[in-house]
Amino acid sequence: MDSTLRVRDAHLRDAEMLAQWAIAMARETEHKHLDPATVLAGVEAGLVDPAKARYFVAMREVTVAGRETIGEAVGTLMLTREWSDWRCGDWWWIQSVYVPEAHRRQGVFSALYRHVEQLARQTEGVVGLRLYVERDNVRAQDTYAALGMTDAGYRIFEREFER
């Protein structure tokens, strides 16, 4: 039995899974409880409008007895774009990263990152990749550093509006 990781574009049929993973990620990292209907609507909106977002899914593919390949979704990330007038190009922001606990520390995020990095390098006008990470998430920070990312020295401030 052989196992490989493959990254693919997400499809609308992935929306429910992606929404569940986004909810799990918010709970784990920020202790936030999100409204499932709102998150599902947000994921679906991103999936149908590339100007909003682009999602990728990591698949662990297992070949059984040398002939049948079975795929299991084992992680995701979402990309958004930010225009930089300083660089006259787009930053691609890596967001909504989630790898279920059973698949962590197995190269899933690295496969997703390498896929997105290759796409970014091949896309004219992309100046780099960015992401934000929880201040105390040292394990994730170590992973990002191992992939060649550096601390950009910014802090994020926000003001969320009530709906």
Can you walk me through this structure?
With 163 residues, the chain is α+β, with helices and mostly antiparallel strands. The protein has one domain (2-146): 3-Layer(aba) Sandwich (Aminopeptidase). Helices cover 33% and strands 32% of the residues. It is built from 4 helices and 5 strands. Helix 1 (15-30) crosses helix 2 (36-48). The model has no long low-confidence stretch (mean pLDDT 93). Residues 5-163 form the N-acetyltransferase domain. InterPro entries: Acyl_CoA_acyltransferase (IPR016181), GNAT_dom (IPR000182). One of its GO terms (molecular function) is acyltransferase activity, transferring groups other than amino-acyl groups.
List keywords for this structure.
single chain; 163 residues; Aminopeptidase; 4 helices; globular; acyltransferase activity, transferring groups other than amino-acyl groups; GNAT_dom
Distance between the termini: 50 Å
Strand content: 25-35%
Instruction: Supply the helix-strand structural class.
Output: alpha+beta
| CATH-defined fold name | Aminopeptidase
Strand count, sense and barrel status of the largest sheet are:
5 strands, mixed
Q: Strand sequence of the main sheet, in spatial order?
A: 1-2-3-4-5
Shape, principal axes of CA atoms: globular
- Overall mean confidence score, pLDDT: 93
User: Please, what is the CATH homologous superfamily?
Assistant: Gcn5-related N-acetyltransferase (GNAT)
Q: Give the uncertain stretches in residue-range form.
A: none
Overall domain count: 1
Any idea what the radius of gyration is? Answer: 17 Å
Order of helix and strand elements from N to C terminus: EHHEEEHEH
Number of strands: 5
- CATH architecture annotation name: 3-Layer(aba) Sandwich
CATH class annotation = Alpha Beta
**Count of DSSP-assigned helices:** 4
InterPro entries: Acyl_CoA_acyltransferase, GNAT_dom
Protein name: N-acetyltransferase domain-containing protein
GO molecular function, one term: acyltransferase activity, transferring groups other than amino-acyl groups
